[in-house]
């Protein structure tokens, strides 16, 4: 999943990025409202963690502009504990959830998981495709009940394929979910990671659709 973190306090921003990355997501960040608004308009994110007290353009204005432009990604706003009016204004502006500062990182990650489940077809933290089980809470994968050792990139790639199982995803689309915006995105490397995953998953789980990309299928149902 691609997550945008918008927080102007450097230490907290770094903590958020590291924690969400460790949970298996690709994370990009912005430290002011102008950059956040631009990134949210031109890039596709699966969710946003948005602080309201931002320089250049406040978080509420950013959120209102996203919603007015038709951007529907779930947004978790961060507010000062005493600023109850900000919570109300945030929900009215289109926020999906809020968390008051200071907060426990575990709670933020749990709320983020809940938002991601709401927008997908998955109602629990465990996703299944045939013999493959992926636990988003613990960032682990089981095949036939046995733990599978994956690198962080392999886990992110499998997560995207699992979330949209049965759909064809292009190499470009997969690479955008694997690498942050400021890194070199080489869609050719997706072939390498797909090849590695194929060696670890049940035969035939990842299907190549010539000229289009890849899709994950339930080999138990394949014909």
UniProtKB/TrEMBL annotation:
Q: Which UniProt keywords apply?
A: DNA-binding, Phosphoprotein, Transcription, Transcription regulation, Two-component regulatory system
- Asked whether the UniProt record includes Cell inner membrane among its keywords, one would answer no
What InterPro entries does the record tag this protein with? CheY-like_superfamily, OmpR/PhoB-type_DNA-bd, Sig_transdc_resp-reg_receiver, WalR-like, WH-like_DNA-bd_sf
Cite the source lineage: Bacteria, Pseudomonadati, Pseudomonadota, Betaproteobacteria, Burkholderiales
Q: Does the keyword Transferase apply?
A: no
Where the record annotates domain Response regulatory, the positions are: 2-116
A GO term for molecular function: phosphorelay response regulator activity
List the Pfam families: Response_reg, Trans_reg_C
A single GO BP term for this record reads:
regulation of DNA-templated transcription
According to the entry, DNA is bound by residues in 124-218
CDD domains, alphabetized:
trans_reg_C
Domain of life per record? Bacteria
4-aspartylphosphate modified-residue sites: 51
SMART domains linked? REC, Trans_reg_C
The OmpR/PhoB-type domain is annotated at: 124-218
Q: By what name is this protein known?
A: DNA-binding response regulator
């Amino acid at each position: 999943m691609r997550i945008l973190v918008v927080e102007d306090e450097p230490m907290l921003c770094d903590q958020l990025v590291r924690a969400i990355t460790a949970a298996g997501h690709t994370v990009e960040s912005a430290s002011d409202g102008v950059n956040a608004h631009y990134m949210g308009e031109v890039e596709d994110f699966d969710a946003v963690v948005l602080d309201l007290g931002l320089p250049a353009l406040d978080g509420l204005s950013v959120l209102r502009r996203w919603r007015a432009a038709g951007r529907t990604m779930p947004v978790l706003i961060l507010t000062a504990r005493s600023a109850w009016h900000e919570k109300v204004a945030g929900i009215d502006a289109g926020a999906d959830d809020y968390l008051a500062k200071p907060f426990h990182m575990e709670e933020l990650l749990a709320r983020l998981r809940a938002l991601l489940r709401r927008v997908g077809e998955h109602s629990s933290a465990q996703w299944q495709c045939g013999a493959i089980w992926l636990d988003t809470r613990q960032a682990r994968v089981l095949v036939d009940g046995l733990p599978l050792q994956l690198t962080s990139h392999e886990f992110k790639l499998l997560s995207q394929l699992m979330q949209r199982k049965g759909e064809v995803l292009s190499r470009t689309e997969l690479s955008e979910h694997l690498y942050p915006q400021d890194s070199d995105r080489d869609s050719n490397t997706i072939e390498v990671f797909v090849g590695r995953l194929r060696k670890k998953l049940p035969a035939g789980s990842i299907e190549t659709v010539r000229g289009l990309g890849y899709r994950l299928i339930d080999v138990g149902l394949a014909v």
